[in-house]
Structures are given as structure tokens and as C-alpha cells.
Amino acid sequence: MFVRAMTILGLALVWNSAAAAQTETEISDVLEAYSHALSGADISEAERWVMVEGAEFSIFEGSGSDIGWAEYRDHHLAPEFAAEHFAIQIYDWSGYTIQADDVLAFATFNIRMEYEVRGEARERDAHGTAILVRTDAGWRIKHLHTS
User: Disulfide: which of 39, 56, 145, 147 matches 60 by Cβ 3.0-4.6 Å?
Assistant: First the structure.
């Protein structure tokens, strides 16, 4: 009886470990897809990975904040990407640390930026935090904080 119980417990731990690894992969894939979309100035692709309704999405960048994907998209991303004096060469997220349950996830990560402003090359290393929610369509970003 003890051996059987230990076998069942062992199988449950293996299953839980595999499920956790799968969840972490799904979450890192979403974060990678979002950062890749921003790197390519592709707003419609970035929108696929966030909560888009009303105020479901929020972002804090440095001292600024936007509540709602439409606000961030229309008043931050679109003008920034359209600006003639601004160009992104590299916008890369890496070094994810992820914790998740069945419906909510928390991730921290590193950000590497190389960009040009008014002809001047700049680079910056930063950090980010993301909160994601599991939806019927998969994991989606609810909140970002980058600094």
C-alpha cells in the first residue's frame, strides 16, 4: 500500500512539474512575441498578446502610465513608432523568472534596448514585470511595468 501511494505521489509530482514547465513556456512565448512585435514596430501583432478591452490592460513605464490598451496604443505606441526622429534597432526581453497558477502569472525579465533619437545612437538596459491572465485564447498580458 505504501509503495503504491508513493508511486501515485511520484507520478503526480512528475505531471505537475511537466504542466508547470509547459505553462512557463507558454508565458515566455507570449512575452517574446509581444517584445518582438514592439521591436518591429508592429502594433497589431503586439495587440494579439494583451488584454484589449477597456481598462483591462495597464502599463507603467518609468514615471508614465497608461490605463487601457487603446490609450497606450493610440497615445504612446503609434506616435512613437511614427516619429521620424526615433528608430528602434533592438528591443529584446530575456532572463524570465515566471511564477504561475492556473489563471494568473507573474514574470520578471531584463530588457535590452538599442535605438536612435534624432540621429544619436542610444542604448539602455532595464527591467520589467508582467502580470498575465489565462484567457480562452491563451495567456494574455494584463499589466506591464518597465523601468
Answer: 145
